[in-house]
Amino acid sequence: MAKRATEQEALDYHEFPQPGKISVETTKPVATQRDLSMAYTPGVAVPCLAIEKNPEDAYRYTAKSNLVAVISNGTAVLGLGNIGALASKPVMEGKGVLFKSFSGLDSFDIEVDTQSVDRFCSVVSAIAPTFGGINLEDIKAPECFEIEKRLIEELDIPVMHDDQHGTAVISTAAIINACEITNKKIDEIKIVIIGAGAAAISCGRLYRHMGVKEILMLDSKGLVHKGRSDLNIYKHEFAADNYLEKEKIFKGADVAVGLSKPGTFDVEDIKHMAESPIIFTLANPTPEIMPEETRKARPDAIIATGRSDFSNQVNNVLGFPFIFRGAMDVRAKKINIEMKIAAARALAELAKKEIPEYLTEVYGKKMSFGREYIIPAPFDKRLVVEVSSAVAQAAVDSGSSSMKDFDIKSYRKELATRIK
Fold first, then answer.
1. What are the sequence ranges of the domains in the chain?
2. Is 64 labeled as catalytic in the residue annotation?
3. pLDDT tens-digit profile of 123-139?
4. Same fold, 37-157 and 164-420
5. What is the Cβ-side half-sphere exposure of residue 288, based on CA atoms within 13 angstroms?
């Protein structure tokens, strides 16, 4: 188990040797007078005029094709809540670090100081030409649904709110493999989702697309059901017909997905679940139920958390760098459901492959597909190849990308050179 950093160590990490976690590097030489004339005036006028004539040339002559915007208003930051745009900046810089480290994508973090949906969308739409993709981050529900919907409709580059879809994709991959291990069929399982925020709604939607028919959702007031008058339109999607006692909600459930906070369900609840239950307690940094408690109550369970110091970490870094990489490389206009499913299936398949020796060294233990390893480890260098190529192919097949003659074999070879 990794030693947790002290508060001072975390502050020192962010302050020294220079403040923050990201910087800008030049990709062309600026060492001579000729270099200067090419990088700026007069040489720069030539690509400017080319782009004026053909906007698509921005992908050829600027950094647009490899540049993601990481944008937040700081209203739902990690487990910290609404701490404001400026206070969210360390997290957004961190997201940029992950984009670069795991997929080779560059990014600018942009903190928009407004809680108005209209103003936020206006700002993002206005700056969108700079970027090849937009990663929305840490925006509270229900505003995040409207913001993402509007921007997807307005813009012709991939837009994704990772807090929603990242968790959905990774947990779907984990459920696929957990069901295989426990001999459960996706279209026959019963899932209980504890939590009804952005991630919970998106997870429920993706599970349905995968064939799950029975989903019950709980929020802070209990079961989401049609007899309640306080449900927003997003919760209505998952409203049960009638009120049920908590024992009946969990009775016979095959999967429980915690996307809430510690204590929102407990060991008494999971005792009512079906044989070989699949229990994901994804609240961070403290799971709804600690794994040792879950294991004691249900020794037959497959367990996942959101933490790196336990097996089966449902970590969004398994998704967003590679989803954007694949989407942007084929100039997809949107990240659609087919691309998300492709990412989930690619993750599930990668977990079954032989584990490279370098991962044994990184994690200090031998890993293999099974109850303690149902999704790939974040440092698996094959992720960029397997997930990004699957997403790119799905974009082409579904029509999100208009790229002709897409050569996936050549693309996979190219991806293999991105991360060393």
1. 37-157, 164-420
2. no
3. 999 999 999 999 999 99
4. yes
5. 23
